[in-house]
Amino acid sequence: MDGVLLAVDSLTKQFRLRGSGQDEEAGSDHVLRAVDSVSFNLHRGEILGLAGGSGSGKTTLARCIVRLIEPDSGSVFLGSDDLLKLEGKALRLIRRRIQMVFQDPYSSLNPRLTVRDTLVEVGRVLGDLQKEDSKSFVDKLLEQVQLPKGTADRRPRELSGGQRQRVAIARALAAGPEVLIADEAVSALDVSVQAQLLGVFRELREDLGVSILFVTHQLAVLAEVADRVAIMWRGQIVEIAQTSEILSHPQHEYTRKLIEAHPFSDPRRRGEFS
Amino acid sequence: MTNRFPIAEGELITQAMPKGQAMFTRLRKIPLSVRIGICIVGGLVLCAIFAPLISADPYQLNFANTLSPPSLAHLFGTDENGRDLFARIFLGLRLDLLVVAFVTYVSLPLGLVLGAAGAYFGGKFDMIVARMTDIAISFPFIVLVIAIVAITGPGLKGIMIGVPVVSWALYARLARSEMLIMRELSFMEAAVVLGFTKRRIIFHHGIPNLMRNCFVYSTIDVMGNFLLLAGLSYLGIGVQPPAPELGAIIAEGQPYLLQAWWISTLPGLVIVLFGLGIGLIGEGLSDSELVA
Amino acid sequence: MLLTVEHLGIEFGPTNSPLVAVHDVGFSIDSGEVLGLVGESGSGKSLTSRAITKLIGSPARIAAGSVTFEGRDVFKMSPKELRSFRASNVGMIFQDPFTSLNPVFRVGAQLSETLRLNKGIDRKQARQRAIRMLERVGIPRPEQHYLSYPHELSGGMRQRVMIALATAGEPTLLVADEPTTALDVLTQKEILLLLSEMRRELGMSILLVSHDFGVIAQMCDRVLVMYGGRIVESGPVDSIYHHPRHPYTRGLLASVPELESANVFRRRAALLGQPPELGILRPGCVFMSRCPHAQSECHSVSMELEPAGAIHTSACPFETTELGTRVILAEAEVE
Fold it and tell me: Which among A202, B134, C186, C225 is least surrounded, fewest beta carbons within 10 Å?
């Protein structure tokens, strides 16, 4: 783990709410600070977890970083370029370096394209993939996500949720990113499939050196993959440390609550659930 | 299913079928109603194409043989001028089909693109498109077409201009509402994150997935336009004589309804049959997975 | 026994070649007991839980088996008996409270309507009781929230309303199908706590369906592990966790993410492939294609739970290496 690859500084995003309901989780009446001046660094080759409950702002933060949502202020430095200050072609160029994998496997792939079409499109549009190289391009990507070669000619409807997520990861990798943001990328999968996908993410870091920002509401998932974990609460990062450190010596009240709420699989470790 | 166990990581669920077999299987899945629809429409279209080859000259006047009932010489009988009705009807059908196809399938892409682009870009552009759509749809359609015909004079020109002016809006509305939903889907967002241009996202990812509903609707539109054309010709302000047109022929046969029922009835039947065929296809399309 | 389910079968599709979603499922629940049903997608656990109140609708159908509640055969009840059964003997809560609550009615109204219909009390009394129930399930300012619509409430609050609705008739059995899956972990804990409290207060038994073994471990006395529509293992939750006998159970437990792994363990995925899709009934073990110990004898396994009559049973007749989950964790590569 070397230098800083992604530096987020004072990122802020607020939403205007029209008349809050009786929702006790909403912020103040008229303005919701979904992301409240958040700063953190992602190091090269690191897997950084971003955890928090619903309404914590973690998904909004992830989307602000890739500018799916336009943040109100702050900066996102990828190397020496501030993503938030670029537009048009320059922005599209830098986007290749930071990709995203989404939560829902069933809407993450274009249903009309085969896996091959999806991957080749990225290669052609972002790079200058030539026809004669496209087969090896696709084969290599599928290998990186541990899918058999035959997957290339399938359409999404022929694939299971876990397989679709792997294709989504392959598509992200086709852009040649340095940073991968996994936005609840395993949350919609069965637990046995989830474990496989976590293995894929770890190997991507090991073999390709991709740095990963792993967003999830499940602390235990981060315990399995993340080197460091940042805890978000009400739009702010309240704690950030090595995974084992945060779990064994949580400093913030919210982190403590999250840990206490984790239902252990060992029935002998019953918390205050019953 | 495989006999090998345990299944390797990421193993595919179904066996891949060779490409030809996959196409054949999809064709076999076409429901009966759609097949009937295709046969009907296909049959009528073939007749329209080949009519002049198998029948007499539709313009040939023959006052010796007026108002004669269907026979071997004249499959559909003759009209008040002795012209062969079979030839006239299918020549008329050919004209109708060409005009209707043109008008419908010019409106479709126009509306589709405007609606999809509006919904995707949002903001002022979308607002303009949406308002234009609302205005076009709220027009009393037939009145507008008649007004245009009043300007251009009777004939096809009026219809070919008037219909697309309004028709595009229905497709735009369909495409817009679908795009509003579609742009939130993950693969559309992934395209943004990948750095694809908006143009690529709309045309390569968005529109192909929106097309199905527009095509299904177009079958209804085709029939609507057909009836409009036939109706206007019936009234005398559409296709002008001596060019044959189904609605016009019906009008011509009206005075002779009791003596020579075939002149008005047969073109009407052709219209109904066509409507039935198109309707069956449209319904089948909307239910099935054929249009990917 | 409060509830006994025997040889339950649920199918889809043509009757001559049916797609089997649940096959030969049998279990019982005692008074005051909490039984867990754990499994991944396609395991049939949700359908099984709905069969208890005969909530199986087209295109699914109950193909075989019986459900006996306090000596009464549920499948043989008349529509009137069934309604009364659902109203006062069994309560049910689902995963997404948003679709189980009617979005156009205020929650208080839905609650008092239930009370009036089932208890035959008048409007005013029903309203008062409804407000008390809302308070009982932990909803703040109950008189105010009585007037709320479902969309005005957070997920956790909606689930509490669901619990109030389900327990309004003071049932002896509560069936909870993934009650906390859509909630975040803090809200999940509150809801599970609430369920436990209500259970003690009303003396209810609970059938808890979940894909999350942690939830099962914290709440249940016994657990059934389901896979591909069958029960593959059954027993006390402690025994199942520490001495899992079926290869699927072991694989499942090894896949569950644990806080202990942090910066210490890097576990390899224990199970390859994915859970099965709905299909026709095949002979042999349902887990065969994914089992690391599979052999040719597995084709003729009957899926009977053995040893018959024991407390902890498994559908795998073979003696595969006896491993507890803790041992699996320790075997993983250490960083």
Answer: B134
